[in-house]
């Protein structure tokens, strides 16, 4: 799996856009809305490689923070000019309100692409990049408010270990969120989806990335991954409560959520 | 079927052909796309070439023995030591001048017949020798000329497309030289020459280029 992502890293984002016709962006946006993070949240994004989730998190938190500040201003209309401008200084220094996201990935190439993207797009604050394995995270217990893994858990050899690690590093009250390809129950859609996956995706891989085999692997790994209910049971086994899932696009993708209580 | 073979459905071949054609035009450095285009569109031309080889004594031997042109099998030092004007000497000169190597040719992936896969592999490896025999460098202009020659010789759709669309990226001055001198010469030579895959080049290193040109039927370059 490591070698697959080594060769895939540079063209990862281009391929994602072509394969899903840009819809993956919508899926990730929905994930962020479901998370609804408030400023001050500490997020761990595992298998976060090229930073898609991390950047969305920062944008979300930034806009929430701006709204917070605007509301504060409205309530302070009775203050003097000096007091208002002083409060600007204070708030300007915390545009993210102490929110932080740690992007963790097992693959150096993916992290490299992510860091370059961050620089290119102008993200500097609140981001950290760590090399690590989802089955054995280099973090202490009870550290994070939210743990996300978007399109990463299907590449983990021992999903149960990754789930246990997720439980360990989350604070009590913390939330586990998993965005992943899942099973389509509608038979007609399922056949169309299979046709598209097996006929078109490897061709896209060959033409865009010069790599048929990695994308053939991708399509096969999606089929092998446990369906919604089974994944839900595995998450519960790791100790999470209130585990639930939401199907997107009739099950092509699903968001699983759980809480550490 | 053979190492590196990826079986593909007709739909996949069609998509690959279309995709690789677009990609090869958009990004001329994607030589792998040119290769893929050749493989997915060659279903008529390749058997034709294979039959031409079968019916020719030297071509038949090549099909039997399946020689490969690779740096590991070529004795570059010996070839460099050959007198000027011989195939071996000029070939090595060509490789060094243009800084290319025979090892960068893509192995076939999408051809569904093992013998035809060898035919296309042989075509790719002989391409550099074509450059040598035609006296064309590896810049865009030289490549287009060789493509015209190969299009006439092999009938591979990829060569025809490459010959027709390659010139798009050339300047007006070069286009003029191309149209007035080089392409007509390439076409005449291609028509006149016997099948280029029927010559056992590895056994002809000592042969002078001029004599080989005459034997094959390639007119002297302008």
UniProtKB/TrEMBL annotation, chain A:
In alphabetical order, the GO MF annotations are: 2-methoxy-6-polyprenyl-1,4-benzoquinol methyltransferase activity
In the record, biological process GO terms are: methylation
InterPro entries from the UniProt entry: SAM-dependent_MTases_sf (IPR029063), UbiE/COQ5_MeTrFase (IPR004033), UbiE/COQ5_MeTrFase_CS (IPR023576)
Record's keyword terms, sorted = Methyltransferase, S-adenosyl-L-methionine, Transferase, Ubiquinone biosynthesis
Q: Which residues form the signal peptide?
A: none
Question: What PROSITE patterns does the database record attribute to this sequence?
Answer: SAM_MT_UBIE, UBIE_2
The answer on whether this UniProt entry bears the keyword S-adenosyl-L-methionine reads yes
Q: Name one Pfam family in it.
A: Ubie_methyltran
Is the keyword Methyltransferase in the record? yes
* Functional summary from the UniProt entry: Methyltransferase required for the conversion of 2-decaprenyl-6-methoxy-1,4-benzoquinol (DDMQH2) to 2-decaprenyl-3-methyl-6-methoxy-1,4-benzoquinol (DMQH2).
Note the PANTHER family from the entry.
Answer: 2-METHOXY-6-POLYPRENYL-1,4-BENZOQUINOL METHYLASE, MITOCHONDRIAL, METHYLTRANSFERASE
Q: How does it assemble?
A: Component of a multi-subunit COQ enzyme complex, composed of at least COQ3, COQ4, COQ5, COQ6, COQ7 and COQ9. Interacts with PYURF; the interaction is direct, stabilizes COQ5 protein and associates PYURF with COQ enzyme complex.
**What is the protein named?**
COQ5 protein
Native source organism of the sequence: Pedionomus torquatus (Plains-wanderer)
UniProtKB/TrEMBL annotation, chain B:
Q: Which GO terms describe its biological process?
A: ubiquinone biosynthetic process
Q: Which InterPro entries match?
A: Coq4, Coq4_euk
A Pfam family the protein falls into: Coq4
Q: Name one GO molecular function term.
A: lyase activity
Cellular compartments per GO CC = mitochondrial inner membrane
* Domain of life from the UniProt record: Eukaryota
For this UniProt record, give its keywords in alphabetical order, as a comma-separated list.
Lyase, Membrane, Mitochondrion, Mitochondrion inner membrane, Ubiquinone biosynthesis
Q: What is this protein called?
A: 4-hydroxy-3-methoxy-5-polyprenylbenzoate decarboxylase
**Annotated source species:** Pedionomus torquatus
Gene encoding the protein: Coq4
């Amino acid at each position: 799996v490591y070698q697959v992502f080594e060769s895939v890293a540079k063209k990862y984002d281009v391929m994602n856009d072509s394969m899903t016709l840009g819809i993956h962006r919508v899926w990730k946006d929905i994930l962020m809305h479901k998370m609804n993070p408030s400023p001050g949240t500490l997020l761990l994004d595992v298998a976060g490689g090229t930073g898609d989730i991390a950047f969305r998190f920062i944008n979300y938190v930034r806009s929430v923070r701006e709204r917070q500040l605007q509301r504060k201003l409205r309530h302070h209309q009775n203050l003097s000019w000096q007091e208002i401008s002083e409060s600007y200084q204070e708030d300007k220094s915390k545009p993210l309100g102490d929110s932080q996201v740690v992007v963790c990935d097992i693959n150096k190439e993916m992290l490299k692409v992510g860091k370059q993207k961050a620089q290119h797009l102008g993200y500097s604050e609140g981001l950290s990049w760590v090399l690590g394995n989802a089955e054995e995270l280099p973090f202490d217990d009870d550290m994070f408010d939210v743990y996300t893994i978007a399109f990463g858990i299907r590449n983990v050899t021992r999903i149960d270990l990754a789930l246990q690690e997720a439980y360990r590093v989350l604070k009590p009250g913390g939330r586990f969120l998993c965005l992943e390809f899942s099973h389509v129950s509608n038979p007609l859609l399922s056949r169309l989806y299979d046709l598209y996956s097996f006929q078109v995706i490897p061709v896209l891989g060959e033409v865009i990335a010069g790599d048929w085999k990695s994308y053939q692997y991708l399509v096969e790994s999606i089929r092998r991954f446990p369906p919604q209910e089974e994944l839900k049971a595995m998450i519960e086994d790791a100790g999470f409560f209130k585990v639930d899932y939401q199907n997107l696009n009739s099950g092509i993708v699903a968001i699983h959520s759980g809480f550490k209580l | 079927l053979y190492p590196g073979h990826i079986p593909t459905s007709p739909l996949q071949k069609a998509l690959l052909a279309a995709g690789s054609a677009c990609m090869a035009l958009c990004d001329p450095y994607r030589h792998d796309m040119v290769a893929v285009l050749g493989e997915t569109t060659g279903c008529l031309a390749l058997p034709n070439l294979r039959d031409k080889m079968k019916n020719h004594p030297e071509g038949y031997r090549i099909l039997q023995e399946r020689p490969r042109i690779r740096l590991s099998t070529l004795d570059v030092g010996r070839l460099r030591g050959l007198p000027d004007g011989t195939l071996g000497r000029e070939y090595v000169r060509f490789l060094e001048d243009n800084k290319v190597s025979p090892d960068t040719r893509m192995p076939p992936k999408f051809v569904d017949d093992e013998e035809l896969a060898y035919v296309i592999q042989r075509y790719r490896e002989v391409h550099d020798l074509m450059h040598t025999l035609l006296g064309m460098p590896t810049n865009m202009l030289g490549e287009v000329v060789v493509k015209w020659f190969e299009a006439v010789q092999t009938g591979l759709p990829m060569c025809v497309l490459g010959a027709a669309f390659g010139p798009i990226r050339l300047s007006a001055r070069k286009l003029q030289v191309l149209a007035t001198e080089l392409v007509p010469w390439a076409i005449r030579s291609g028509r006149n020459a016997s099948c280029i895959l029927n010559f056992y080049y590895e056994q002809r290193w000592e042969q002078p280029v001029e004599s080989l040109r005459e034997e094959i039927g390639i007119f002297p370059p302008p």
